[in-house]
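Support request, please re-run this one:
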Amino acid sequence: MKNFIKTGTAILGAVLIMSSCEKDDSTGSGKLSYQVKPANFTATIGTTISGSGLPTGSNTNSSITWTSGSLYISEIDFEAESKDREIEYEFKQGVSVDLFNLSPILGSITIPDGTYDEVELGLELKKSSTNIPLTLKGTYTDGGGAKIPVEFYLNEDFEVEVEAEDLVVSGSNDYLGLINVQLNKFMTNVLSADLSNATKTSGVIVISSTSNMNLYAKLKANLNAFADCDFDD
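Re-run finished. Output below.
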């Protein structure tokens, strides 16, 4: 599957809108639910791009280990398209997610029978003084073994666009979309020099829109590439 990220800790059924481009005359339908499974909390940090963002064991020199994090989604837009229909759903309920635990079922939608060769998901993140859209905290271990706290904050309007492929819905089966959030990929293209030379605030490498902006731009660019999804029935 291509990148596919969807998160939450509560059932997302409060506000739901469905529209179809053509009349839906399907005789069956399947229920599709989602669950988030985080993985690869430690990533290599190389001296070159090819050595960064790879999964590795804890406490490896020149690496970063994420230890806590959360995501707050203001709106989720789901679209799926087959040969004869297009469906759209909108979830307009704020959802907070712990990125370090297997989530409960996030919510369920009913999809008519068909083979959907295009599945797209849009996550709307909104700047907020109370619910920061994305927070990650961890520790950078440099090449000499020194450990430095790292904190990443994304607090701006941002849309994460994700795609998946070939969802086949048949009958009234239940389907589970297991979203594998691979945190190591969040460090793609980040070099050891970027972190070793970063400005520290009270001994902490703070990465945000106002602190270590070059690092912030690199991590932000990886938001559409650090998850994939497997469908099971």
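The radius of gyration is 19 Å. Residues 98 and 197 are 30 Å apart (CA to CA).
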